[in-house]
Automatic annotation (TrEMBL):
Keywords: Membrane, Transmembrane, Transmembrane helix. This is Uncharacterized protein. The chain crosses the membrane at residues 20-39, 45-66.
Length: 71
């Protein structure tokens, strides 16, 4: 007997929402800015700010992934 895939689960419906993809894109862009600033100049303050921006972007990405997994 052939099993049909269950694509109508709540998790799959949430994974296909465009708001989650937008949140992931924002998180990735913020992380890229943090990485760029990390290597752009050599300053203690700029390095600290770039690490904060990088972790903020990672937090945004984790938030989007856990939003999918929460359902």
């Amino acid at each position: 007997m052939e099993q049909t895939p269950k694509h109508n689960t709540k998790s799959m419906q949430n994974a296909n929402e465009t708001s989650i993809y937008k949140l992931l894109i924002v998180g990735i862009v913020v992380s890229i800015v943090g990485v760029y600033l990390r290597f752009a100049m050599d300053s203690t303050i700029l390095s600290l700010v770039s690490w904060i921006i990088l972790f903020l972007g990672a937090f945004i990405c984790f938030k989007a992934v856990f939003k999918i997994l929460n359902s």
